[in-house]
Amino acid sequence: MSITGIKGMNDILPADSACWQFLEQQARTIFAAYGCREIRVPVVEKTELFCRSIGESTDIVEKEMYTFTDRSNHSLTLRPEGTAPVMRAFIQHKLYNTDQVSKLYYMGPMFRYERPQKGRYRQFHQIGAEIIGIDDPRIDAQVLAMLSHYFDAVGIDDVSLQINSLGCPQCRPGYRQALVDYLQQRLEQLCPDCQRRYLSNPLRVLDCKVAGCKQSTAAAPSVLDHLCGDCADHFTSVQHHLDLIDVDYTINNRMVRGLDYYTRTTFEMVTGSLGAQNAVAAGGRYDGLIEELGGPALPGIGFAMGVERLVLLLQERDISVPPPALFIAALGDNAVSAAFTIMHKLQRQGIHVEMDFGGKSLKAQMRRANKLGCRYTLLLGEDELASGTAQLKNMNDSSQNTLQLAGIEEQLRTVLDA
Ligand code: ATP
Ligand code: MG
């Protein structure tokens, strides 16, 4: 029996990788315009990092982490998300000494032990950004503008931006209590999961997908009615600046995030086309996180996009890979050697050239050139070689030209560049 991959961990095959590269390249280009630079952190961290940042009573820490002990008995975890590792690196390398604001982005695999289904995997990929050092609401607006710019640029329009504010350590406890009081009256209607967590993580109940929980929290108190003055002002200003630059959004006062570190502005980019996996990107402000992890008291805000979900939304769009510019069909040992040299010289100039190494007939080679969709085929047989020429065939209109073998690479370049 041959060995297969691990359930929920996918191979990205050549047929799909162009789409991935497109999504990654767009992120690099667009994020750069907002001043973000890439940071690359390891995929494994000390388990403690995630427990402390994401929170002990979250789904991720309670049941989704890939945690193991290494040969020295250290507890390590495959990163389930990118923010905590990026903050760990930010603190460890004292990036705050270099500049008072750090604008970072990252991309790469994340790991969560979830039930695999469409849009939900055990190894998945995120592209994320973090802006550290500024608590001005205009930064929130910039981050959201960058996110919606990205979706415009890659051509995904079946999404909408939802925003909310989760308040701060001053006002959240008041809201939390109001919510617990409300939930306590309706405990029998809640699912077992929510009955268990309504005290440890009451906000999470608002996010529960079970119908009974949705129903019984329909009239739950709104976090927006419990914001302190500063948080309310911040949220108003975020909206004002989004309006100023025409970034569309809706307010969703039931949106809570599954990680403990969020404060104030939180947001999701949601789609109607992926069933239950409707969040394509998510993020928020985390003003206490860096200090919590042992760094200076600096505010931050960021988001992560799920690349697999972006790919699913892009699937209708055909990201075509350009065909080879040239196929060289050669017959006879000497001609094949000459062809091999020409191919190599053109490839060194960055031109995609293909040839056949199987000793096939000219006809079979032409069939292959056609199948690959090559724009031109260069025909080189013993006769041509003897007369120091080759035939260049335009595969679109079948027209044929005689080229001199001397200096053929330059002649080909001129034709292929045109
Ligand atoms: P969900 O509600 O779908 O479980 P989440 O709140 O757990 O999402 P975040 O931790 O905020 O998600 O991660 C940000 C984004 O990463 C999500 O919006 C989603 O696009 C993507 N994502 C999260 N978990 C997975 C997964 N298991 N497989 C694929 N993509 C994922
Ligand atoms: Mg999740």
Q: Any overview of this molecule?
A:
- This protein has helices at residues 14-33, 47-54, 59-64, 83-92, 137-154, 172-184, 192-197, 202-205, 211-216, 229-244, 289-292, 307-314, 333-348, 362-372, 382-387, 408-417, and strands spanning 37-38, 44-46, 66-69, 75-78, 102-111, 123-132, 159-165, 250-251, 263-271, 279-285, 300-306, 326-330, 353-355, 376-380, 389-394, 400-404.
- It is an alpha+beta fold and 418 residues long.
- The strands form three sheets. It has an eight-stranded mixed sheet.
- A hairpin with a 5-residue loop joins strand 15 and strand 16.
- The longest helix has 20 residues, at 14-33.
- The two termini are 52 Å apart.
- The model has no long low-confidence stretch (mean pLDDT 95).
- Bound molecules: adenosine-5'-triphosphate (ATP) and magnesium ion (MG).
- Magnesium ion (MG) binds next to loops.
